[in-house]
Amino acid sequence: MNTYEFLSQIEGAPQVLQYTVERNMDVEKGQDAVIQIVFCSDPRPSRTSWEWGSYQLEAGKDRGRYVAENLAQDVRDDCYSARLRVLGVDVGDARDYVLNVENDKGADRYAVGLRVSEPVSMSTVIGIVIACLVLLVLVTLIVLYAFKTEKWCFSQKGKDICKWNRPSSNQVSPDGQKRCTPDRYTVPSVP
To answer: Which UniProt keywords apply (predicted)?
Structure first.
């Protein structure tokens, strides 16, 4: 029996491995963003670039806060990792960034959306805490007022409020309401 070893090599246009890449990326203002896209290409890509707005940046180059790193070999054969760094992200950096990859068999492109959020400032946090404290004090004062003046659910009208005292200590005031008085005090009589 003869055994033959068969070695196959498939060549073709670059292809982005979309399952390895998030469609959108969230970054806080002031942080660095790293957009990474993995693609496979055999033969090796002849041109790799990033574009956004009217700008285009080749791999291995930089422009101000934007750095397009050199391609890095991925763990898979004939696959590479392209990375674009945006240093100190600002709100104006929120947009789509497109990777363009070409070889002599064809091309592929893939866009990643960068979303920039504002971090919560310390003054906002302090303002919220102060507002909560003021609200708490206000609610406490309203509840105390209602309790003292026997308003709302604190009203004692129609209830025997002296049930804990002996019957002899219950007195009726001029307005017709029962009042609780300890035995040792006297209530002036009404003429």
So the answer is: Membrane, Transmembrane, Transmembrane helix
